[in-house]
Amino acid sequence: MSDRLSIAALCKGLFISLAFLLVFALVFSLIAYFFTITNDTLLLLGNITLAVAIFAGAFSAARKAGKKGLLHGITLGIIFLIVMIILTLLWGDMSWHILLEKAGLTILAGTIGGILGIR
């Protein structure tokens, strides 16, 4: 076995993260549509969605790789963060404060998921 990161594991983890993000976003969108929810609650639900999606992807990536869970988890968090930044620059608007908050959240969730994903 090599000592490098598993690209296949990271791709699977990224796919899992995106799938979780899509499902949670759909569920929370339906909740927000049918019920009156404050902006603070929407931000909280968004952060929970992001953290769970990254955690699940990092857990899956580390599980598939079978080693270097911390490194796989952090790398997945960074990849996801880069994708978020690119999409935000293209279609959205994000302040530095929010960007730093999301960065910390993705790295933390990726780290925990990666560590716990090792068998």
The total count of helices amounts to: 4
Q: Describe the global form.
A: globular
Gap from first CA to last CA: 16 Å
Q: Bin the helical content.
A: over 70%
How many domains comprise the coordinates?
1
| Strand/helix succession | HHHH
Class computed from helices, strands and strand pairing? mainly alpha
Per DSSP, what share of the residues sits in E-state strands of 2 or more residues?
under 5%
* Major sheet: none
Nearest-angstrom radius of gyration? 15 Å
Low-confidence stretches: none
> Overall pLDDT, averaged?
90
User: How many distinct beta strands?
Assistant: 0
Question: Could you please describe the fold and organization of this structure?
Answer:
There is one protein chain. The protein has 119 residues and is mainly α. The chain has one domain. It has helices at residues 7-34, 39-65, 69-91, 96-117. Helix 1 (7-34) crosses helix 3. It is globular.
